[in-house]
Amino acid sequence: MNRYRRNPIWFDILNILIMCLVIFLTLSPFLHIVAKSFSDQKSLAKNNITLYPKGFNVETYKIIMSDKTFWVNYGNTVFYTVFGTLISLVMTTILAYPLSVTRLKGKKIITTFVVFTMFFNGGIIPNYLLVRSIGLLNSIWAILIPGAVSTFYVLVMRTFFESIPRELEEAAMVDGMSSFGILIKIILPLSKPILATITLFYAVGAWNSWFSAFLYLTDSKLYPVTIYLRNIIAGAMSSAGTDADSLGSVSANIKMVTIVLTSVPILCIYPSLQRYFIKGMMIGSVKG
After folding, report:
1. Of 29, 134, 176, 258, which is most buried, counting CB atoms within 10 Å of its CB?
2. Whole-angstrom Cα distance, residue 159 to residue 191?
3. CATH classification code of 67-286
């Protein structure tokens, strides 16, 4: 008898049903928000909207998308996400690679200091005083530099680098290649899964981040779109820059519209990196 025989058909059907249920439970909150964003005021007042809109309405979308403040903040978020992710990825790589090299002197001590920062930090007030003292307050660098490196991602990337055969590095050293050349020409081309994974992590974090901007920025022209959304949720409707009468007519679903508009880019990016995400996390979690 073949011990590796195919599972019974009922088992496959049960797995499919369970996965469909999980997918539905995962998507239903977002579908509920989308349905509310396209519903009219009467339906929202009755609070009887589930997963599809009632009384189709796009007036709120028109008002939000015609607001210059929204697009300025949206552009700021794109800028912070792109350049913040790039800076974070470069800094994480140049810290993780040396920690993966066995010949590095003092490797254990350095790793201990790195891990220490994972559990202990100075706190909000010392961080704010530090940012202010070095002149980064109310500038784009206050968003890009503090917190650019995540200790957890450094450790995950280091573990991935350690899984790459050392023979490749030794052969390159015999050919006279420098450590920087080995990193650029050998290690990084073999590390696409983990690079894509860490890039996705940093990009999602930068896109959703709002507290750093709330803490360090005072110029509304530098705000990310998450601060725009935060002001709406907090009831600071005047920051939206819309007419008071028009705003009053759409106040019930303006939050939902803004949430949808700020979520779309990440929802579009994630599927393209999903295969790298799964592979990178599996390797980074098993090795080490």
Report:
1. 258
2. 11
3. 1.10.3720.10
Digit-coded pLDDT (tens) for 50-63: 888 888 888 878 88
pLDDT tens by residue, 122-134: 888 888 999 999 9
- Rounded Cα–Cα distance for residues 211 and 247 (Å): 26
| CA angle centred on 131, ends 125 and 136, rounded to 5° | 150
C-alpha 275/C-alpha 193 separation (Å) is 8
**Is the alpha carbon torsion for 15, 18, 24, 26 positive or negative?**
negative
Nearest Cα neighbor of 70 from 287, 214, 268, 258 is 258
Angle at 257 (CA atoms; ends 252, 259), nearest 5 degrees: 115
Q: Where in the chain is the domain with CATH 1.10.3720.10?
A: 67-286
- Identify the burial level of 239 via C-beta atoms within 10 angstroms of its C-beta, where 0-12 means exposed, 13-18 middle and 19 or more buried: middle
Q: Rounded distance, CA 103 to CA 106, Å?
A: 9
Single-letter amino acid, residue 93: T
The secondary structure of the chain in percent helix, strand, coil, rounded to multiples of 5, reads 75, 0, 25
Question: Are residues 206 and 80 in contact, defined by beta-carbon separation less than 8 angstroms?
Answer: yes
Q: Is the pTM of this model over 0.85?
A: no
Q: Which residues does 40 contact at the CB level (< 8 Å), separation at least 6? A: 54, 55, 56, 57
Distant-in-sequence, close-in-space partners of 80: CB < 8 Å, separation ≥ 6: 140, 143, 144, 206, 209, 224
Tokens 């903040």 map to which residue? 73
Where do we find the tokens 């490196």? 149
Residues 79, 91 contacting (CB under 8 angstroms): no
